[in-house]
């Protein structure tokens, strides 16, 4: 262990604190959303339930429904067999974790009594209670749970494609281990050689809004650790006039970035790159601006996956219509026009969300309400908008950001100030949250 990493060692006092908080961490953060109605005994039913998407939310939902129902026919549809621990990708992209740590298998979390159809859904047809799969099957359901996650629109950035990641100074932490490790090759090179580094953020909701910020701050930290900070000029380019939706964290970042000599270029949505010239184009209020770079972290716009976006399940108007997010009631997670349809995870159009922490808070609500719907009882579980992110500011330090729909901070650990950098959020991120996430996939937290 080198001198710089000394402070990452777990001292006896830290070990004590970790042991004391181990239980809370193991159950995951933010036990703030508790369904007000839980079905203590299994509900007998012959309902047919289809879950689309076997990621974080889909596996959690499958396990909860499997445990909560007796006799239901539950089908989960997803062709992907690999499970990726996406919250670990920022650590892969900054050279702290290897990709092996974030690769897993869906099969490990799939309940025995749930039928797994390894297909993609190509169309949602809620008016006929059915979905179409890519092999032409029409699957009819009584109840539908949509957990498809989101789609990253690389082609919205002119000149950008995924095969450029890891070449010509281009990185993108979204949203698989291969992209993250190729991003690390570029960040490793940049932090050796210095030059101009541009760190972008797409317009609209992105999954884990903290990820682009973490990549920026961990790169800055690495430049210092390597002794090359003076040879690098860094800028962060938010698409509007904010860095983070929660006002206290926004205020913190507005001080933190300049204090670390990371220039903030407001109103700079990235619209194009010229890879060979290493030049980025931004659509600013005063016209297009081109900036040359040595390294660029590209964060493309995101939306609901096409089959969902193109369906009547998507918001048709209002703030979530442009991303085609699924139209749910933000408290019950029931579809607002199709009462036998529920959703959770990145695909839903709610004011706050798009983190695994939100999944952990949403899925118990969506599944409890789906079970209530089967039982013909009122839907009484509520999602309060809980989201969380250990906002890593440098290796070994971070801020534990947890807030709700009202943007109120709702800390799970009262002894840790959510306004100060501390080693504990780092420890959570690096050592503890992965286990809590896996327990969530089993529907256990
Ligand atoms: C770089 C990065 C860093 C992150 N950091 C954090 C963090 O620090 N903390 C945190 O809480 N969260 C973090 N997240 C966010 C978190 O990983 C996601 O919010 C979470 O995985 C969302 O779960 P989901 O089930 O909605 O989507 P996913 O886990 O992405 O799963 C969606 C599933 O749906 C399937 N699917 C999609 N379309 C179809 C279709 N048409 N038919 C069938 N199946 C389909 C996909 O194959 C996939 O398996 C991060 C994410 C990224 C990318």
Describe this structure in words.
The chain has 9 helices and 24 strands. With 445 residues, the chain is of the alpha/beta class. The strands form 8 sheets. Strands 7-4-2-11-22 form a 5-stranded parallel beta sheet, covered by helices on one side. The longest helix is centred in the C-terminal third of the chain and has 19 residues, at 356-374. Bound molecules: flavin-adenine dinucleotide. Residues 52-58, 77-78, 80, 86-87, 89-90, 120-121, 147-149, 173-175, 207-208, 211, 305, 307, 345-347, 354-357, 359, 389 line the site of flavin-adenine dinucleotide.
How widely separated are the two ends? 35 Å
Structural class: alpha/beta
**Nearest-angstrom radius of gyration?**
22 Å
Query: Which hetero compounds are present in the coordinates?
Result: flavin-adenine dinucleotide
Described by the principal axes of the CA atoms, the overall outline is globular
Total number of strands: 24
What are the low-pLDDT stretches, counting only 5+ consecutive residues below 50? Answer: 1-12, 14-28, 31-37
Largest sheet: 5 strands, parallel
CATH architecture of the largest domain: 3-Layer(bba) Sandwich
Tally of individual helices: 9
What's the arrangement of strands in the largest beta sheet? 7-4-2-11-22
CATH superfamily of the largest domain: FAD/NAD(P)-binding domain
CATH class designation of the largest domain: Alpha Beta
């Amino acid at each position: 262990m080198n001198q710089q990493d000394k402070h990452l060692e777990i001292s006896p006092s830290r070990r004590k604190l970790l042991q004391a908080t181990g239980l809370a961490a193991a159950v995951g953060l933010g036990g703030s959303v508790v369904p007000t109605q839980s079905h203590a005994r299994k509900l007998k039913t012959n309902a047919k339930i289809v879950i689309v998407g076997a990621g974080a939310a889909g596996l959690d939902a499958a396990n909860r429904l499997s445990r909560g129902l007796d006799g239901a026919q539950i089908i989960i549809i997803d062709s992907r067999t690999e499970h990726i621990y996406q919250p670990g990708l920022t650590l892969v992209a900054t050279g702290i974790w290897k990709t092996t740590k974030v690769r897993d298998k869906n099969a490990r979390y799939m309940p025995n009594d749930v039928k797994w159809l390894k297909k993609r859904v190509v169309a949602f047809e809620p008016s006929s209670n059915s979905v179409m799969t890519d092999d032409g099957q029409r699957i009819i359901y009584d109840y539908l749970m949509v957990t498809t996650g989101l789609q990253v629109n690389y082609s919205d950035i002119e000149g950008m494609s995924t095969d450029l990641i890891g070449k010509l100074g281009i990185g993108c932490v979204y949203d698989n281990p291969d992209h993250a490790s190729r991003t690390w090759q570029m960040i490793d090179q940049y932090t050796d050689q210095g030059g101009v580094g541009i760190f972008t953020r797409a317009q609209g909701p992105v999954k884990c809004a903290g990820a682009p910020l973490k990549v920026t701050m961990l790169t800055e930290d690495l430049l210092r650790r390597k002794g090359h900070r003076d040879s690098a000029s860094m800028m962060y380019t938010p698409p509007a006039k904010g860095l983070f939706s929660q006002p206290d964290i926004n205020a913190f970042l507005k001080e933190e970035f300049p204090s670390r000599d990371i220039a903030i270029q407001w109103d700079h949505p990235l619209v194009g790159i010229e890879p060979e010239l290493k030049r980025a184009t931004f659509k600013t209020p005063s016209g297009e601006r081109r900036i040359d770079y040595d390294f660029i972290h590209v964060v493309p716009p995101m939306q609901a996956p096409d089959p969902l976006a193109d369906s009547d399940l998507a918001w048709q108007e209002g703030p979530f219509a442009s991303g085609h997010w699924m139209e749910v009631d933000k408290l019950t997670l029931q579809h607002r026009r199709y009462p036998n349809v529920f959703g959770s995870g990145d695909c839903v159009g709610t004011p706050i969300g798009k983190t695994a922490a939100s999944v952990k808070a949403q899925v118990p609500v969506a599944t409890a309400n789906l079970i209530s719907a089967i039982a013909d009882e009122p839907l009484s579980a509520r999602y309060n908008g809980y989201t969380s992110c250990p906002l890593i500011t440098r290796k070994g330090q971070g801020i534990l950001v947890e807030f709700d729909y009202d943007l109120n901070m709702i800390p799970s650990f009262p002894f840790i100030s959510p306004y100060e950098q501390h080693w504990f959020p780092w420890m959570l991120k690096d050592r503890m949250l992965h286990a809590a996430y896996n327990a969530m996939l089993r529907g256990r937290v």
